[in-house]
Amino acid sequence: TKERAGEAYDYAAEKTSQAVETAKQTAQQAQEQVGRAVEATKQKAGEAYDYAAEKTSQVADSAKQTAEQAKDLTEEAIEATKEKASEVKEEAKDATREAALKAGEAVAEARERTQELKQQVVEEKDRLADKYEEGQQKALSTGDRLQ
To answer: What's the predicted TM-score (pTM) here?
Structure first.
């Protein structure tokens, strides 16, 4: 159960790590593109302005897409974690039920064995009482013969 929960946690961590790395790379790319766009604007005021605006829009779109991808990956990781947790929970319930059944069986067997042992003790007690009585009778009979 712990292993399954660990797998679910590892999967979620991997998906989240991927999303964060993608976002970092996109942010760095966006920063680089914005820097180039600013230089072009300085060199060519009119055309460069349109160019920079277009590139900025592309970067914004790209960043938006990356953010959506990161969100989707995070949601997938959360859902996968929930599914794994649910599976693990069910497995734990099943294992608990099975353990309870086995414990019940063990208790029943112990009770049965206890009853058997009690019966053996009673039988042995009766046998010893019979032997004692037999010994007493022999002693009395031997005493009578000695007189």
So the answer is: 0.38
